Amino acid sequence: MKTGISYFGVRNPRHVKKDLEEIKQNNITFVVHTFSENDKEYYLDTMKEIVNLTQEMGLEVYIDPWGVARIFGGEAYSKFIAMNDDARQVTKEGKKGYGACMNNPLTEKFIGEWLEAARYIGADYIFWDEPHFSPFTNKEGCFCDICRDIYKRERGGDLLKAGSEELRWMRGYTKLNFLKKMIRKAHEMGMKNALCVLPYDRDVDWEKLAGIPELDVFGTDPYWFMLKGDFEEETRNFAKKVAELSKKYGKEGQIWIQGFRVKKGEEWKVRRVAEIAYEEGIRNLASWSFRGTEYMSYIRSENPELVWKTLGEVYGELLEKDGNP
Ligand SMILES: [Zn+2]
Q: Which of the chain's termini has less CB crowding within 10 Å, N or C?
């Protein structure tokens, strides 16, 4: 049984150390450290120190490309897209979008450099979080020349004239190829890989994602604020699906628990998600983020203290139940 928490925003090892002690006390076994472009450029050795501190305490470390190239989830800007106009996604109308194109070799090279940095700071796992096309500018996908050429080669038509099902195919093809390459690269560099797919992302058949050979952990983040159906039922469906696919492809299944924007009176859901996932066979749980995300005003919970306490309690109970107290 593994229990995780994400951590960000503090880059002073003196303070991080205190927080890590609190994390350890809250029945947590691994930390997902965000590693943005800003961190890579300005806090590289500080991050190495933070990762070392984490591992010295017996906690595993996941490194998250937080908002990197605006392809992955995260509240962080991208210098890469600001400086590399040629690598940016292009809208149907021919305008530059808010994110890098996953088919562009410049993007691939940049993520490769980010991986080198992640290895340098000591990542155990790379946490590929919510890979997506920009919801602001490129919901339908990317229409740059590279993408249009690929589509023509693979499907024999003009991407600009493609219907919604064909556009979905193209987004899926793009994501799958990109992730396969990056995951293989991280694996060859000696790191493990965890992938978290947005719950309603159907660009790629989840079978194909879970089946990526060098992937170690497959999961999703069914945060209740975005669920389209009944909380319990939808949570169970996602946990079941992840558990089934993970078993089929020999991966570790992972379910994320909402630990941000938790409304007052909703804290019990933190416990319920963990319990439901456990019942469905999930043995890798994680929550976003440390202390109910109390220190990020944009997404903080209304009663972060209680979110944190609830998480620690259910983690402790499940660890014990699973035989590793
Ligand atoms: Zn493109």
A: C
Write out pLDDT tens, residues 108-118. 999 999 999 99
Helix (H) or strand (E) holding 170: helix 164-188
132: CB partners within 8 A, 6+ apart:
71, 72, 73, 99, 198, 201
The string of DSSP letters for 215-247 reads --EEEE---GGG-SS-HHHHHHHHHHHHHHHHH
On the question of pLDDT at 121 being above 80, the answer is: yes
Instruction: Indicate which CATH number applies to the domain containing 62.
Output: 3.20.20.80
Ligand 1 mean position, distance from CA 319 (Å): 44
Task: Write down the pLDDT at residue 325.
Answer: 59
pLDDT for res 324: 78
Domains contained in the chain, number? 1
For ligand 1, the distance from its centroid to the CA atom of residue 284, given in whole angstroms, is 34
Residue 16 has pLDDT above 80, yes or no: yes
What is the per-residue DSSP string for 69-99?
GGTS-SS---HHHHH-GGGEEE-TTS-EEEE
**Which structural domain range is residue 117 located in?**
2-321
Residue 93 Cα to ligand 1 middle (Å)? 13
